[in-house]
Amino acid sequence: MSDDLRTILLEQVERLLSDQSGPDRLRANERGEWPEALWAEAEALGLPTAMAPEALGGAGLTWGDAAALWHVLGRHASPLPLGEGMVAAALLAAGGIAPRPGLLGLSVGPEPVAWGRRAAALVMVAGGTVLLQPGPATRQGLAPYSREPADHAAPGVPAEEGRLPAGFGPDAALLAGALLNAARIAGALEAVLDMTVEYANTRKQFGRAIGGFQAVQQLLARAAGETAAAAVAVANAGRAADRHGLAGAEFEIASAKVVAGEAAGTCAAITHQVHAAIGFTDDHPLHLFTRRMWEWRDGFGAERVWARRIGTAALARGGDNLWADLTAR
Amino acid sequence: MAGLRFDLRDLPPEAAALRTDLRAFLAEAGRHWSPMVRAYSWMGFDREFSREVGRRGWIGMTWPGAYGGGERSALERYVVLEEMLAAGAPVGAHWIGDRQSGPLILRLGTEEQRREFLPRIVSGELAFAIGLSEPDSGSDLASLRTRAEKVPGGWRINGRKVWTTNAHRCDFMIALLRTAPAPDPKAKHQGLSQFLVDCRSSGITIRPILDLVGEEGFNEITFDDVFVPDSLLVGQEGNGWEQATAELAFERAGPERYLSSLPLLTAALDDLRAEPAAAETVGRLLARAGTLREMSLAVAGMLQDGKTPAREAALVKDVGNDYEQALPETLRDLFDPARTPPEVQEMQRIMTMVARSYSLRGGTREILRGIIARQLGLR
Fold first, then answer.
1. Which CATH number do you get for residue A201?
2. What residue stretches are annotated with the Acyl-CoA dehydrogenase/oxidase N-terminal domain (chain A) (predicted)?
């Protein structure tokens, strides 16, 4: 997608989420209330199937485009399982299966399916094959941090299956999920940083805004550095996936998940520290974002999982190849 | 977020061949570099090495041909910098001239100054030092007191500069000096000017200061009625603060702000295969290295576009400093004195000491974070 088109798309998504989401919507999700209106709008824009090629009813969004979109989604704490649905549709389409209407649940290994109870079908990858199993996922559960619906399906018989192109590799669903979560974290980091800067400039103690204190400034500057690093890592991973395929972009996707996951921990700590007691309350919206950041850093491979993968590969390649490999991209 | 954008940049196609040349050159030149040389890298001073780098056209690469420059892109220059640092090359004799003094002269110097200095920086002959800090003026740089008084035909300098890396080995320094009293204590940024000062001028005493590693890395310089001709004022009289701030942006914009300790990771990697806990740690370190490299490239891209990415550079330096400073500590936990090769352990020990300077030189962590905080809109 051209830069101009991407900008227009991102603005559309930003507008949709600004208009129709917010703390109330996020809290409703946590009560298990499906974001019906928001999902209908997303479908009207063709977002759930946007990564399928035009021939299969999509808009041909690339991984890089999608990562940018998920970044916007994360800035609004992802009030609907759009990212998961997009990944599922992309995998189906890559296997030659036209994505069907309704929510497609993304099922990766033993991980729960976001809003699986609403899924028209579940999509998973085994070996180099994408499988479609009729939905919904009936074993209902809650994601431990975000408290949003996270369900499991009973083992079923695939209704359809398609061979994925070689560039996807056996871990395509996990890699795409990791890119999705890294991107959402990167967006959420921006949101909590903005929220915290505004709070620090408003909250007065000792007769002045606490943002004027160097101790607070130093903390937030560090959070800004982590936030910028996560955004760059995600953009780099999206670009690498477009150039080298998901499997070929394992280093960049793993890096993005590690950097974003580390940033999530650091910045959640900093933003809560600056907000102090008010940010610890249920009333304040900060935790709607930080709890999702904690959720996303665990989902689709925590930092240690991805770090071990690329670390093991680098150790096998040895010191003589380290710098050459790092600069080969 | 408050306007700090880092757009990914691709290296131009020419970069690949350039990188191949650099690697061949550095492999040959670096055959006998000790762990000390590699750990000290850009504080290391080796004129012969710098002249060789100059002969190959790798200094002043982006400058106009009229001054001996290579007219290459900032992104090609980036490749040279990152290869030098990743190899732990002793670049100190040309680093400052290439990175700070040269660009400053090119931007603000007189035509005569450009013709006089730039070609000799390019050839690796002329080594520069930075004359900013003073005994009582570190982070609060504008409070500096070394003064230049107007005298017929030039200026007379009195005062002291300190922490000037390698000044005792350098030919020239660009010094920030007070040329007029500050109109009031709140306007101390006014009345400062920059001068090119010959380090061998009469009246200059340079006293090397032994650093904690045991090297004579930096100095104290005393100016006792040192005469500098009018022709060596850089830029505008009284505009020194703005000029020096821009100069610091050049200093902060380079990839040296995350790569300082990478030679240790390279040297240690083979040994770490024997350490079960290493895979995860190495993975985390590489994830950050790759990300910091993309951030540095984004800053190089902004320079290429003619922008002055001062705030972006401050942010990358801050994140990069944390990284390069933590690396020797992180690896230490994975070393085993009975297993890890002695030269790797030696490099680790030297870097543990040298790393203290990473978050001091070119602006302390606290100053950088103050810059970032202002960018965020904190007040």
1. 1.20.140.10
2. 9-92
Which range marks the domain in which residue A104 is found?
A: 3-168
A259 contacts chain B (CB < 8 A): yes
Asked if residue A164 and residue A176 are part of one domain, the reply reads: no
From the candidates A236, A250, A305, A329, which should be mutated to test the interface with B, based on the most B CB atoms within 10 A? A236
pLDDT digits (tens, 9 = 90+) for A51-76: 999 999 999 999 999 999 999 999 99
My answer on whether omega of the bond before A110 falls inside 30° of 0, hence cis, is no
Check whether residue A287 and residue A156 sit in a common domain.
no
- A293 and A213 inside one domain: yes
Report the percentage of chain A scoring pLDDT > 70. Answer: 100
Tell me, what's the ipTM? 0.97
Task: Identify the residue whose tokens are 């993309």.
Answer: B294
3 state DSSP class of A156: coil
Q: Which pLDDT belongs to residue B3?
A: 58
CB A174 within 8 A of CB A300: yes
Same domain, A177 and A308: yes
Cβ-defined contact of B287 to A239 (cutoff 8 Å): no
Which chain B residues have a beta carbon less than 8 Å from that of A3?
A: none
Q: Is the pTM of this model over 0.90?
A: yes
Q: Is the pLDDT of residue A208 over 80?
A: yes
Domain count, chain A: 2
Q: Which of A130, A233, A119 is nearest to A178 (CA)?
A: A233
Residue of A nearest to B262 (CA): A323
φ/ψ of residue A135, rounded to 5: -95, -170
In terms of domains, do A237 and A194 share one?
A: yes
Predicted local distance difference test score (pLDDT) of residue B245: 87
* CA neighbor of B78 nearest in space, from B4, B12, B8: B12
> A133 and A248: one domain?
no
Q: Is A304 on the interface with B (CB under 8 A)?
A: yes
| B 146-205 → A contacts, CB under 8 A | none
pLDDT mean over B362-369: 93
Q: Do A307 and B287 touch (CB under 8 A)?
A: yes
End-to-end Cα spacing for chain A: 21
Dump pLDDT digits (tens) for A83-107. 999 999 999 999 999 998 899 999 9
* Judgement on whether residues A30 and A48 belong to the same structural domain of the protein: yes
Q: Is the pLDDT of residue B306 over 90?
A: no
Q: Is B291 on the interface with A (CB under 8 A)?
A: yes
Q: Which residue has the tokens 């998961």?
A: A84
Q: Decide if B257 touches A, using CB distance below 8 A.
A: no
Claim to verify: residue A158 and residue A282 sit in the same structural domain: no
The domains found in chain B, sorted by start residue, are: 14-126 (1.10.540.10), 130-238 (2.40.110.10), 253-376 (1.20.140.10)
Query: Closest by alpha carbon to B277, among B331, B325, B329, B351?
Result: B331
A168, A185, A203 — which closes off a domain?
A168
- Contact (CB, 8 A) for A92 and A98: yes
The pLDDT value given to residue B366: 95
Match 């790092």 to its residue by tokens. A326
User: Does residue B53 contact residue B77 with C-beta atoms inside 8 Å?
Assistant: no
Q: For residues A254 and A243, what is the distance between their CA atoms, to the nearest angstrom?
A: 16
Q: List chain B residues with CB under 8 Å of A193.
A: 1, 376
